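Consider the following assembly input.
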Amino acid sequence: MGNINFIQKSNLFSYTATRCLRNEYYHNDCNICIDLCPKGAFHIVRNKLTLFENECVGCAGCIGSCPTEALEIESFDPNGFSAAYQHQNEVTLSCKTSTPCLGIFDVEHYIVMTLRGDKSVECDLSHCAGCVLNETGTLYGSIREKIDGANLFLEQIGSEHRIKTIEIKEEENERRALFRKGFDRVKESIAKEETNLSMTTAHHKLPDMKMPLKRVLLKNSLKEWTSRLTQTTFETSTSLFFNKQIDFKSCTNCGECTQFCPTDALFPTSDKQGIFFAQGKCIGCGICEDICKPNAITAKEGYDLISIAFDRAEQMVHYEMVTCHECRCPYPYKGGDPICDRCSSFTTQFSNMFTMAKDL
Ligand code: SF4
Ligand code: SF4
Ligand code: SF4
């Protein structure tokens, strides 16, 4: 069965269902694109995300926010654009001249452009508040949030550069609102931009379908930046990097978290008796925490930039496998009598039954 069955398209926009977190794990409730889409073009059908092609205007506002890069537009590749940004003379990102809606970028893109170019990136937000795509304020808020997140990180790592913004004056904003055009105009301008953006038409496929390319770009930029870092470990988490811990006592080494982690941030040790975690690969989807029946895996504060940049993994737990003295099955031993969890809980839960049978 070809991938084509899982790709939905409207004009220039495409949604690849096999890269969506909702497809990866039935109970995942990622709503990011649904909340951002100004036309409500995404719907949940039988618990799966579905794009209603006729409702999508291809504005690209949702693209940057998708953690797994399941959303794309044919005329513009934000990863290619960010990687090549340093070679451009034009430093201003603007939906009127150089890019589609700035919602096409994520925090990683802003950081990559700043670090690689070693210059401040400028974003023209003067059209956002009054834009037809921003009627609920969600899209503008999301763009601002990503720029603020990137600036916070740049400050943390000691970069002298920031993402600068060009804002609109309030009175101009009100005037602009009077001239709001219909969504057909957005379609027309995007179609026009398609011909103007030849440098961005190179369509980058993910080198590893499990790792978003924007993450790979960010890690590569961080590698080049490491010699300039004054601090590499941070005690509080950000919305960009995530850390995990597994409780040795509660974990049953069932391996479900490693099987369902969409980016392989969690993976088994070669002897399958332990679990590794790589901070640089975690996209914070929460599937592992959700799926773990004994709630053994939880979020942990702090992150380490060297581990992230170089994809270093930390062994979270490791078990010695022993044979249960009751059922003779191997199980991860955690001390005490060599009886597996299943046998010991069976004995506890049904001890009354055995007592009754004996007494009869
Ligand atoms: S933002 Fe991405 S992962 Fe989340 S529901 Fe939309 S397509 Fe799926
Ligand atoms: S952390 Fe939870 S899901 Fe992962 S192996 Fe341990 S018990 Fe299973
Ligand atoms: S480690 Fe957990 S939160 Fe991170 S990507 Fe894997 S499943 Fe998602």
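Residues 232-318 form a domain with the Alpha-Beta Plaits fold (CATH 3.30.70.20). Ask yourself how this observation constrains the way the partners meet.
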